[in-house]
Design goal:
Blueprint: E1 6-7, E2 10-11, H1 12-19, E3 23-27, H2 28-45, E4 49-54, H3 61-69, E5 73-76, H4 79-87, E6 95-97, H5 104-112, E7 117-120, H6 123-136, E8 140-147, E9 169-170, H7 171-179, E10 187-193, H8 204-222, E11 229-231, H9 249-266, E12 273-276, H10 280-283, E13 287-299, E14 303-308, H11 317-321, E15 327-329, E16 339-345, E17 353-361, E18 368-372, E19 392-397, E20 400-405, H12 410-414
Parallel strand pairs: 3-19, 4-5, 4-12, 5-6, 6-7, 7-8, 8-9, 8-10, 10-11, 11-12, 14-16
Antiparallel strand pairs: 1-2, 3-13, 13-14, 13-18, 15-18, 16-17, 19-20
Helix pairs in contact: 2-9, 5-6, 8-9
Bound molecules: ligand LLP.
């Protein structure tokens, strides 16, 4: 076996040579194992449950096939994600359609495909859906997203369950607004939803949210609504750096199920079906990004910059959230004697720092560098900044590898460009 860095049984240097860099590499085996850990935790807790994989994390037609074959549902948050899923053959009945500002065309599309659930995010959206379903004489099952007023300890930009939030119905208005569905012919309320934020490593805010949700659930049932499910969203954190705290879903899920069972008994209501929408915890550890080191520059007396052939265009998270990542040089052993503290920077024409400070074994031009845990919110948030082409995505399964998404070409970059007549000569 070579000394090279191995990911999911594959030599990463060989992958970089075969497919080129920058390259997103996703492991189907890890994706499936992560989905199954969540399913197994629910099974062992004996709960009525569903898992909606959060498509915003990492979505393409191949990923939809993986999700479908695991028998779980899919959360989509735009017409584009919905289209991708349907185009891949995903069963629309297992799709849950989200979004805080769905437009008319998206609502029509969701009804046209007969998605299993629409999550209503505002009073205004409920009214639009009422009008649309009456016009089409078509029934739809809905959940209502509620803002439970929980402040989870995570980055401010990914905290979404606070009272001051664009997401969901304010808790104080939820009962009245959801109650209106009793008078509606085609909008059928089946549950309530919340998502308190992402990259949360502590189970307390989740347990607290489940209590708030169950209290509202009880009120709605006593108002005569025929609800059956509570969707608690996603948000399970993962360790990006070796010493980061990790969120143990196998421990948390049975605890949450027991807690909800106990609370339901106390409140004398039937235990609801529990739905979760994990994204990051499924996809992040299943992916790495491979780069080739180019320029290595020592600033005298200060630091060494190691520049790679990608950066904020394929991973905007460090620039957006100050997110930290771990990395290794794939073609060299992690030899302590060779370690130097460096900054890994990307190729975009601005600061573009991927990793502010990391010890790497004497990085040289031509080395292959792997940034770890990039499977979530990297490919899905990539841009063409500087007219960089989005990298290819390669999928690994056992000892096989195949292209999941082609690398963009220069032609792709100009294919939607048009020259207005007055600029033609
Ligand atoms: N369900 C809903 C309604 C959501 O809004 C989200 C994420 C999820 C589920 C999945 O959450 P997860 O399990 O991945 O934490 N771009 C940011 C993350 C934004 C999360 C948005 N919503 C980042 O790169 O950290």
């Amino acid at each position: 076996m070579s000394e090279n860095f191995i990911f999911s049984g594959h030599d990463t240097v060989a992958l970089a040579q075969k497919y080129g860099t920058p390259l997103y590499v996703m492991s189907e085996d890890i994706l499936r194992a992560n989905i199954n850990r969540i399913k197994d935790a629910f099974e062992s807790a004996g709960a009525d449950y569903d898992v909606n994989y959060a498509g915003k994390t990492f979505l393409n037609m191949g990923m939809c096939r993986i999700v479908a074959s695991e028998g779980v549902s899919l959360d989509v948050a735009s017409g584009g994600e919905l289209y991708t899923a349907v185009k891949s053959g995903f069963n629309p009945a297992r799709i849950c359609f989200h979004g805080s500002n769905k437009n008319q065309a998206e609502l029509e599309m969701a009804l046209g495909y007969k998605v299993g659930r629409i999550v209503i995010d505002s009073e205004w959206e409920l009214e639009r859906l009422r009008l649309l379903t009456e016009e089409l004489e078509q029934s739809v099952k809905v959940l209502f997203r509620v803002s439970p007023g929980i402040e989870a300890h995570t980055h401010e930009l990914i905290q979404t369950g606070k009272i001051d939030s664009k997401f969901g119905l304010p808790l104080s208005q939820a009962r009245e607004i959801i109650g209106r569905t009793k008078e509606m012919d085609y909008v059928e309320a089946v549950g309530i939803h919340c998502h308190i934020g992402s990259q949360i490593a502590d189970e307390k805010p989740f347990l607290l949210a489940s209590e708030v949700m169950l209290d509202l659930y009880k009120e709605l049932i006593s108002d005569g609504l025929n609800l059956t499910e509570i969707n608690l969203g996603g948000g399970f954190g993962i360790p990006y750096l070796p010493n980061d705290p990790s969120f143990d879903v196998t421990n948390y899920i049975p605890k949450m199920v027991d807690h909800m069972r106990e609370m339901s008994e106390q409140r004398q209501i039937p235990m609801p079906k529990i739905v979760v929408e994990p994204g990051r915890s499924v996809a992040a550890p299943a992916g790495i990004t491979l780069y080739t080191v180019g320029t290595v520059k020592q600033i005298p007396g200060l630091k060494k910059y190691v520049s790679v052939d990608g950066g904020m265009a394929d991973n905007p998270r460090p620039a957006l959230y100050g997110a930290d990542y771990d990395a290794v040089i794939c073609n060299k052993p992690q030899d302590e004697a060779l370690m130097e503290e460096v900054t890994v920077s990307g190729k975009a024409c601005e600061t573009d720092t991927l990793i502010k400070s990391i010890k790497l074994p004497s990085p040289q031009p031509g080395d292959t560098l792997a940034v770890l845990h990039t499977g979530a919110y990297n490919y899905s948030m990539a841009s063409n900044y500087n007219r960089l082409r989005r990298p290819a995505v390669v999928l690994l399964k056992g000892d096989r590898s195949a292209i999941l998404v082609e690398r963009e070409s220069f032609e792709d970059l100009v294919k939607n460009d048009r020259i207005p007549s007055w600029l033609e000569d």
